Amino acid sequence: MSTQSPVTSFAELALPAPLQQALADVGYENPSAIQAATIPALLDGRDVLGQAQTGTGKTAAFALPALASLQSGSRLPQVLVLTPTRELAIQVAEAFQKYARHLKSFHVLPIYGGADYRGQLRQLQRGVQVVVGTPGRVMDHMRRGSLDLSALRTLVLDEADEMLRMGFIDDVQWILEQTPEQRQVALFSATMPDAIRRIAQKHLEKPVEVSIEVQTVINESIRQRVWMMAGVHKLDALTRILEVEEFDAAIVFVRTRLATAELADKLAARGYATAALNGDIPQKQRESTIEKLKAGKFDILVATDVAARGLDVERISHVINYDIPYDVEAYVHRIGRTGRAGRQGDAILFAANRERRLLRAIEKATGQTIEKMALPSVAELADKRMARFKQRITETLATAELDAFRKLVEDYQAEYGVPVMDIAAALGALAQGDKPLTARAEQEKKEKKASKPDKNKPAAGPGAEPSRERGKTDARPDKGMERFRIEVGHEHGVKPANIVGAIANEAELDAQYIGRIEIYDDHSTVDLPEGMPPEILRHLKSVWVSGQRLQASRLKDAGGKPRKRKQGAGKKNRQGGGKKQPR
């Protein structure tokens, strides 16, 4: 049966204060439909059978009540989540870590095939409260005796139909039969084939059934595109897109209310007329902001889903999903803010490699393939700026009173003997300011921003000879790079390729931009481009490599120098994806 809940905010749910604080920290304002229907039932101790697709927000629907039920002091797993894939296991583990940020002595461990057993065994021996894993690897640990589920309180089957499709259903059955009888079970599946129904009937006790129907009607006049983030920071990508796209007004959607103010400030600093809109803004101020947007007093609104609910402004030509929504319905609602009154609309989505599942869920739910887009190149930016500058000249010639300026040019030419063409070029440079007008000027500006090379250093780049003292490496990173400490090392079995792969995938950074890697006993250092955005650094703190969270920190903030490496941990462990200079 379908369950409809009147819950409209997380504050109404009986979640412990540390979980409410974590939700407030990240700025989540109201639960999705499945969260509102499922969380109260799970908090009451009921089993749940949920029919919901990826992208409906079901991870929080089971993670929050599972965390609320944890007993302090136990080193044995109390929550087990089974997922069909490694990627989903990592994603779910990261969600648990985010929601448990204010819980003391909390540990979550993702376990899946293809990863080193040793790191997983060490973590299990140290004690974890939540295990998230694929059925095969979970079953292996149970048979080895390394995964003790005698204290299990909550068992979650996530995307059960996918586990059936991938041939894991026998493993799932075996795991269910080995768990304590007195445990709560939540089963989620996009479809309910007979095999999944049989599992539910056998292993769930009088479950609350929740079925969420996703509304996916999309205006055909809206063009949908996606940029798969790689190599360029999101803010730089956003400003490139805003500069090249012909837009009247745009809404940029982010997930949290904190991000609205941060991004609006950054865009304003780059010369865009911008305002923020989130659930903390009083209704009167919200109405005033919307009226100013309608009147053309600013052009870009940075907003959360809640703040933009019901927003109807005809001049919005573009919607940019700066943060991909976890909820498919939220995506449909967001892009519906454009293409109003029969006009053409554009919707652009930013998606990371780790978010491909959400992207596929959106495409599946909407029945549409979202067109891939490439970022505008430096040359395209320059062409656009040139065309825009010519247009400004044409408009000024047609509308402005120029007699006083003609007199000024004539006087200057007579006084200094400078050709009129040079005077016009100088005035153009004054009008353009410090924003480069050509691709060559753009490149020259970048080169000038780079620090002057150290004359004592050899030239950097592929094939450059190492500069190395006997028994010692130069601690300084290359020009334009910054050194970070990550909490994974030899004792965890990590290899340079593991670090490169994790950072390239999770930070949306091309491997060629990852510099020198040094591996020590219990940690490593890695050189990354200077100016890493805070949101990427925050994310890298929670990324898992060889059974460890990276906990990335700038080396100058990490406290102390790296410890001496193990014997033999030299050159073979120094590896990066591209330009790097051994020291």
From TrEMBL:
InterPro entries: CsdA_RRM, DbpA/CsdA_RNA-bd_dom, DEAD/DEAH_box_helicase_dom, DEAD/DEAH_RhlB, DEAD_box_RNA_helicases, DeaD_dimer, DEAD_helicase_DeaD, Helicase_ATP-bd. Residues 438-479, 551-583 are annotated as: Disordered. The keyword Disulfide bond does not apply. It comes from the Bacteria. Residues 441-457, 466-479 have a biased composition (Basic and acidic residues). Keywords: ATP-binding, Cytoplasm, Helicase, Hydrolase, Nucleotide-binding, RNA-binding, Stress response. It is an enzyme of class 3 (hydrolase). It catalyses: ATP + H2O = ADP + phosphate + H(+). Its EC number is 3.6.4.13. Residues 561-574 have a biased composition (Basic residues). Pfam families: DbpA, DEAD, DeaD_dimer, Helicase_C. Belongs to the DEAD box helicase family. DeaD/CsdA subfamily. This is ATP-dependent RNA helicase DeaD. It comes from Pseudohalioglobus sediminis. The gene is deaD.
